[in-house]
Specification:
The protein is mostly beta strands. Helices cover 4% and strands 45% of the residues. The strands form three sheets. Strands 4, 5, 7, 8, 9, 10, 11, 12 and 13 form a nine-stranded mixed sheet that branches. Strands 1-6 form a two-stranded antiparallel sheet. A two-stranded antiparallel ribbon has the order 2-3. The longest helix is centred in the first third of the chain and has 7 residues. The radius of gyration is 19 Å and the shape is elongated. The two termini are 27 Å apart.
Length: 193
């Protein structure tokens, strides 16, 4: 089955709409007893980005927008496929701009959360710009010094860190990423009530 359209991309949208999750388990219920518990393992059909920005400008930094590159696919399979990162034919990628009203004091770090379908947009697509690129143009998300991020599997979490330097230096932030299985990472508290 194919899941189409965009999922809500930030923590507020996830709280309101939930996450696409799939699980399959076969059990014989003919011999079930009262109170019997059946565990169904689940896999999130999305990846999660935890963006940690640190202000090193020497002053307050007003953050009004985070622009994420063209790595948001418009559809995915609801259930995991036999091949990792198997996406439906005709998948299209788009960028997304998330509005915020954050002020980071000098030396302060703040964390932002974003969600998207598994993605294999390729080199150059995984970028982050701040304040619509007016303050800091799109910079690549890097796995290490010379290896950019090129794909993200479902049910993984990206822990992306970036330091915002003074604009006088004229250097865009360098965004570093660590990719981990989502099951092994403590998640922030999000109420689904």
């Amino acid at each position: 089955e194919t899941q189409t359209g965009s999922i809500p991309g930030d923590a507020d949208g996830i709280t309101a709409e939930g996450l696409p999750i799939a699980g399959i388990h076969v059990a014989d219920l003919t011999t079930a007893t009262d109170g019997q518990v059946i565990t169904i393992p689940i896999t999130r059909a999305v990846a999660k980005m935890e963006l940690i920005l640190t202000n090193a400008t020497g002053d307050n930094f007003e953050l009004s927008q985070v622009v994420l590159g063209s790595f948001f696919p418009d559809k995915t399979y609801l259930f995991p496929q036999e091949t990792e990162l198997a996406l439906p034919d005709g998948v299209a990628y788009d960028d997304h701009t998330f509005s915020t009203n954050a002020t980071l004091s000098d030396g302060e770090s703040q964390t932002f959360y974003f969600y998207f379908y598994e993605s294999k947009a390729g080199e150059g697509a995984y970028t982050i710009a701040l304040n619509n690129g007016a303050d800091y143009a799109a910079a690549p998300i890097m796995l290490d010094e010379d290896k950019p991020l090129t794909s993200v599997a479902r049910n993984t979490q990206l822990k992306v860190t970036g330091t915002i330097e003074s604009k006088d230096v004229e250097v865009s932030p360098i965004f570093r990423v660590v990719v981990v299985n989502w099951d092994t990472v403590e998640n922030p508290e999000i109420s689904f009530d």
